[in-house]
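May I ask for whichever protein you like with its backbone structure tokens?
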Amino acid sequence: MQYNDLEKIRVEKVNRLRASGSNPYPTRAHVTHTAAQAIAAFEAAEAAGNGEVITVCVGGRLRSLRAMGKLIFAHIEDRSGRVQLFLRVNELGEQALQQFREDLDLGDFIEARGNMFRTRSGEVSVQVQEFALLAKAITPLPAAKDEVVDGQVVRHASLSDPETRYRQRYADLAINPEVRQIFRTRGKIIQALRQFLDERDFLEVETPILQPIYGGAAAKPFVTYHNQLKQNLYLRISFELYLKRLLVGGLERVYEIGRDFRNEGVSYKHNPEFTQLEYYMAYADYLKIMQMTEEMIAFVCQRVLGKLTFTFDGQTIDVTPPWRRVDLRQGLIEATGIDIAACPTAESLEAAMRARGMNPKPGQARGKLIDGLLGDYLEPTFIQPTFLYNYPRDISPLAKSMPDDPTTVERFEGFIGGMELCNAFTELNDPFDQEARFLEMGRAYAAEDEERHPMDEDYLQAMRYGMPPNGGFGMGVDRLTMLLTGQRTIREVLLFPHLRESSD
């Protein structure tokens, strides 16, 4: 490896420690308290006034170091926060104090044992009696910036270039507590989603990621090859068709939280792999699922944020039920002047769009044209929580038609902050209708079109055994995390987002 000058100095320290018989990467640690636990234990004893001595061993990354003659003040940081270390020659001796100064650097992981006390300035600290290096950091954390706190200069490490932050997420997390908080919040969101569904008697399941036939969404899949089976397999684009097979088998309420993969464009709200929640509920329809969606998002916000409002892109969002409901056809009439019911073919819809000064790509299927209209003219206007419902049949191959209108299906999408959050149907459970839909989609789209939905004979076989009426729901967990953490790009809520190969 090639080391810069600072790294070379630290490598020399590693070599010196090893030559002296000291291991810079020992196998064991002896930590007994987090920083927060140590401080809390001392404050409890202090409040009790019983004179109890609180002895702890804390561990963490060395964040600051200030030597003052025979004294050293330092801070270490762990998952719970920071605690000050107070090192004095009286307790440690000259040699140990010198070793701390010479062998340790900011970024190193150390442990320190001692009694808790409060310094003259009032800070609860560990009066160190012993310390040990747990892991030597060779590369210093990124360049520091100065900040004045209470009249003193405090040094913080920072990364400012987003590309570097995403490529070196480990460094980004190490020095930016607000980034760590995003992913703690993400974890709480997933816990709350699970709790909501578990409390309603849903069963969490796992379905195949490698699938012989992709389906359940309109997206282009990633293709791989299984050598022993000698066949192409697809990374799943949705859980839907496998989860609905489970309804046939008698598992009436199922959900899965996991990864989907779509070989499509990358944007502020798209990543090739993303986390999805899907659930299916027997004997429910899209109206019931709509109600559950309002309840679930409100539940998650209350659990994670402690309130039903949050700020996103400068707007205060209120998720209190009930949410606004907009009929898709009527919404497009009001936004564009186009009545999609009066344009039953792709050609007639394209002509209507051109008559209003729009410039659609020639030869697109009617479903794609409609999807483009709602994406351009409706989606950006839905800042507050909104359900757009009753979709055209030709862009919803797995949804049940309305009883009085075979051209429209019982489907809704939920929008918040000007972007789609979720998608749901009254699910199609008629095997004859489903087969006709598969054939129709195959004819309507070219073979290479990502909207083309392949025939899944095994899924049809499952349906022929009898599938109960049901409602289904899918939601991007990454987008929900964006909303609740106020992030305008999906990359901020993915630990390791996909990036173009570096040119360095």
